[in-house]
Amino acid sequence: MTFVHGKNTYISLNGVDLSAFVTTSQIEKTADKHDVTTYGRDDHVYSGGLKDGTVTMSGIYDNGASGPRATIQALIGQTCTLVRRPDGTGSGKAQDSLTVLVEKYVETSPVADMVTWSCDMQKSGAITTTAQ
Amino acid sequence: MILSAVMDEIAGVLAGITGLRVHDHPPATVNPPAGIVSYPDRVEYDQTYGRGMDRIRDLGVVLLTGKATDRSARDTVAGWAKGSGSGSVKATLEGHTWTSCHVLVVTSCTFDVVTIAGVDYLAAIFSLDIAGQGA
What we know:
The complex is a heterodimer of chains A (about 130) and B (about 140). Chain A has about 130 residues and is mainly beta. Chain A is built from one helix and eight strands, in the order ββββαββββ.
């Protein structure tokens, strides 16, 4: 077991490697909860429900044909495959693959710094977690 | 992004400003009016995943002209420091299509007096913000 630096993280959307334009990414994995507390209890009791999740990523804008604008804008409102490798690419390293609904793409232009972008996605279906 | 290539390209572009002798690194001797492409405080690696982008936020370029007490020296540095037009350092550098980096922005110009061989020369010091390919 070793600590892992974020700089080698790989992320692709719809088969396009966006890693070189990304500064932050996250997959949030959640589940519904159901309160099944009955009479006579002193504490709430819960049961797990359907799993859910969201994905966000953001970074530095690039105007190339495989940059974030060209890649993501066309996918807004559509589902596609997202692959994220937190340890980077390599045999045996972790990988999450899932279908996402692309919900939002934002470009931000500060006057004294680089143009940045961000993208919000909704998990759709199960996450396939495997070693590469 | 290779620092020496960036410094070479900056010097080459600045050499297009009339009357300016530009050094692509700090030289042993300087004969004003002259330009010196200096070293940055640091190169910032891994600005994006996978060695996508490196950044140099404060590469300095020092331009020296005549005696600090000469009116002509003031007029010369004013021409370099103006934001647009012929002779403007900002317009000259930002109007260039860069090959050693992706983007270069001239963020500020400060002024100082530099003593060379007992003579006080007026200096305009430009700060450059540079971003380029990490790999």
